[in-house]
């Protein structure tokens, strides 16, 4: 994921990168967003705004990780959303807070976008601005709900892993969460194929591949712990996946 990226800016010691494939997918999907508006500029603004929400979400992960003494210095935006490369201290509470802080950002945005949507709709009903804020409010809700699905490596799946960490430990919790992720990803894939959605099929493949990697990682860590081999810290990238473009 770090290859083929363009560095956008640095904030609070965190470098933000944009993957080059973002432009390819954006050029294709922005045309769909434009159809909702009289002015095409609002369609472009809506698509870009999705990734602004994603970016804020990822900063939630990164800043929370650093708050508990972890390392977080890179965020990558790509067509399927955003990835914050975080390495929290190897404690259940620190890991859980680093993950939960991302969805918390969307929770905070709920009343802000909701009130803004109502105000604009009351003052300029039917306008492009009214449509824009209504869509943005719905997108934020969909982002929150989707990312809280208990499917590893979505935030919900990683929160499940953090909760399982307390009774089962670091390695077994990852193993269990990965199995749940494999099952959940497979179900999403079947649903996507039945609905004829290529987007959902791509998401399902991504989730299954990441869950499989988590399973393999957990097996390796369990084997190393049994052999009393020190396990080096590795960044756990919280994933934030945007809703399917229209």
Task: Walk me through this protein's architecture.
The chain has 246 residues and is an alpha+beta fold. The chain folds into two domains: 1-147, no CATH class; 148-241, no CATH class. 67% of the residues lie in helices and 12% in strands. The chain contains six helices and five strands. The protein has helices at 21-34, 40-67, 92-123, 128-147, 155-195, 198-226; strands spanning 5-11, 14-19, 71-78, 81-87, 239-240. The chain has a five-stranded mixed β-sheet. A hairpin with a 2-residue loop joins strand 3 (71-78) and strand 4. Helix 3 (92-123) runs antiparallel to helix 4, helix 3 (92-123) crosses helix 5 and helix 5 runs antiparallel to helix 6 (198-226). The radius of gyration is 19 Å and the shape is globular. The chain starts with a strand and ends in a 6-residue tail after the last strand. 39% of the residues are buried.
